[in-house]
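From the pipeline queue, job 12 of 40. The input is one protein chain; the requested action is below.

Action: predict structure.
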Amino acid sequence: MALRLITHFDVRADVLPSLRAQAAAAAEGGGAGTVFYGVAWPFEEEPSLGTMSMVSSFRDCPQLASPGVLETAYESLRVLNIERDGNILYTYKDIKGNAVFGLYDCQTRQNEHLYTFERDMQAVSCSVNSERTLLAASFVQYTKDVRSELQPGSKCLTLLVEIHPVNHEKVLKAVDSCIWVQFLYPDVEGRLLQNHLLLISEEKYIERFHIQIAREDGNRVVIRNSIHLPRDRIAEDFVWAQWDMSEQRLYYIELEKSKSVLKCIQFWEDESFNLMFEMPLDISLSGLRFKFVNFGYDYHQDQEKSRNQPSLCIFTSHTGGLCVCYSPKFDSGEEVTYSVFYLHKGYRKTFTAAPGSAGSHATEGMTFLNLGCLVAVYFPGHFLHLLNVQHPDFTCHSLFLTGNSEMAAVLPPGPLRVLPGSLVLDCSSGKLYRAALDQSFLMWFLWNSAHLDCEKMAALHCVLSCAQDPGFQDDQIIQWICERVSACHSFDLIQEFLITSSYWSMYPDLAGVDRLLPYSSVLTWNTEIPGLMLVTEELPLPLMKVYSLTGYWAKLNANLEYVKYTKPHLHYHNSVVRREWYNLITEEKTGQRRSTVYVKNILDNAARVISNMESRALEPRLIPLLQEEDRHQRLLVGLMVSELRDHLLRHLQGVERKKIEQRVLDYVSKQLNLIWCMLETSWRKHSARPWVLHLNNHGSAAHFEVFHLMTRILDATSSLCVPLPPGFHSLHTLLGVHCLPLYNLLHYIDNGVLLLTETAVTRLMKDLDNSEKNEQLKFSIIVRLPLCTGQKVFRLWDHPMSSNIISRNHVAQMLRSYKKEPRNSMIGKSSFSTEFLPLNYFIDILAGLESSHQASRDFEGHDSVDADFVEEAALKHTSVLLGL
């Protein structure tokens, strides 16, 4: 399955064993006090609360040890709330029908009894403060002992209780509408002297109560202002509200002149709160019943009516993303439509499943899951769409999976509650899951089911966005690329992998890098997705109400500013690197020199990248790269480091320079290492043992496969101006000599596909014998060498043809400064006795030039090439031509 559900909490598996153990302990009998999950209350301190009090003890209620207790608890046990610290509040009925409240600590994985009410009431909502000293609970009181369902005239009772130790309770509300409660959790350490409680009414208002507490006799906590609790009216006259427990935010929608206006209130650590923004949404909520999201879990809602209501939820990301997911009322048999408002991007996308994709038998509504950079849209049995909310520009970055028999079991069939942090609560079973992408399934999908280019690209992005095991991701994807390197037509698979994988390696560590680094090689995408209709609309950006922003809000505001004002986009690209690289190469060819310090800094950057790569190599490499100078590639590596570092330093304010420099080194090292790993994977695939290049061997089909992959890599990196590991061109050329006929080899060289490096040509000159075929190859290579390289390798070939070329170059350089002057004939100086006057006269001129001071200075270090060498080479070459 594309989604993997990891059980985070199971109310029956994690709570029932504790109840069973406590019941067994009570059955053995004889405790001196009341035992509640390991907490002992002496009888003399037990308070009298009238109709509501603590259960006496397991000893005084022997029926608690009977099997009926566990059966009753099992049937009534359910989760009521999950607090910001991850602790889970649950309730159940004991054998007397009393409402019992407990807490499961997710850190210690221990249960703690909180409170027991001696009345048969149905709990609607509860919340405990961060110090577990106060409990707020809301009940529905049944009339005439009817408990099958809520009665129209039921009365809701909301209580605030001191539980550390048990002292007294205060009635907050006693009304005919349902009430939900939620303590605020300030992100501060230490013991608080004031708690704040949100009270959410079905009558469309939210209040905040201020609860002053006092500590007496050590840890004893009492409410100081129990007679009168000050309160604030937070919001009113709204139709929908969502609570973000992890960030302490309240989202709600008001209907203003038939328009749905989204608002958000942020609660701060200093007890203040602010209305952060307003945003009109073009959605219809006229038929929506009053609805809360994440304010506890009401198990007595009419599920059928709830299912036929519009679905709406809000997701945020730590990078400043803000998405509103909306699905209108679902009618069986119609097309399935939903919208995602990418408020941080300034547009809305509306997706419609093609006719026939949603069967008439569908009964469950749509579920939206927040997976960080992705939002999963699940319609049971029909589709699972993984929307890329971090980069939603093109539909090809989102994966649209159609329904099948297996997909029907992705999520539990019962009513679901989606929580922050990719948590999903199955209300019917009481299980809390953490949803995550299944890397194994996505890789299987790439190998077996991704037939369209858009599916391959989307699956690739989904796999790389999973930060679970980057090493596993790269290795698996590289194996797939080596098999499918020519499978995509709409984009270059190697380019996309290099850019996307490098981007995701940098993404988690640097905030704002998503606006500065390219995340895809695709610039445009107009191909439609089969079975899906998509409409994109521009949106007005949220109107921020607070101008001194920090944390998430600063990131969101930066995204909004980027959308409004930044043109062109700030994404880094290699155009400047390409231009500067070509300039440096041209200057070297023409003999011009840049500042020595400038070039040295660039080469030092390259040396640091290569050192970074070598330090991270976990095993010996089969392919010998990084073992030669390859000055041009080192210049490109160093220039990319320099330009990328400067780009990030300009736009990432407040980030340490050392951190940016290290991340840049990692980024460039990652790209070089990915190329190396591709070669290693192909090498291992086609050759089981380490293979050293020997030019006297014949190439095989396996060698040609490696050569073909290297050619594709070269083509991909050339258009991106991405550097190659030093030694790549030498290996590529030697493989070309192995695998290609001479005509094709020379065609590749002349068109720049194969680059003749000094290392590769030296190997050719030394390893190949002077057979007729090899002589033709060597000569064809030598005449294509630049002069600076040719001067070094000509002497390695002991052949008249090489001597001829060396002589020609020597004579050409000597005669550049020759001025004809009258001179006497000096015949007889040649080492040969052959009388050939034109040659003798020419050799005499060369000898005179060589004897001059200027010539000896110009040709210092070339003492093996002189007039005698030229004369000998000329005679040998003439003899060869005449067949003598």
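Job complete. The radius of gyration is 39 Å.
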